[in-house]
Specification:
about 70 residues, Serine Threonine Protein Phosphatase 5, Tetratricopeptide repeat, 4 helices
Length: about 70
């Protein structure tokens, strides 16, 4: 069930990315979705795009730090 919800979320955010390609919220949500599915490289890619717009966001900086500590 959880995997289905994550996949549905991913598909919705991908659609939003097409509609709003520069949206900081879409970058954040895609980063979260990829992180939850342990696709850390893709997660980091979207969090980095987020930080290009809002470089001092403590939540995203903390998440990136946690991901970088993982052996991925």
């Amino acid at each position: 069930m959880k995997r289905t919800k994550v996949r549905t979320s991913y598909m919705q955010f991908q659609h939003m990315f097409v509609l709003y390609p520069g949206s900081i919220n879409v970058f954040d949500r895609l980063g979260d979705t990829y992180r939850k599915t342990e696709q850390y490289d893709l997660s980091l890619e979207y969090y980095q795009k987020f930080l290009e717009i809002e470089p001092a966001n403590p939540r995203v900086l903390g998440i990136i730090e946690q991901i970088n500590k993982l052996d991925h």
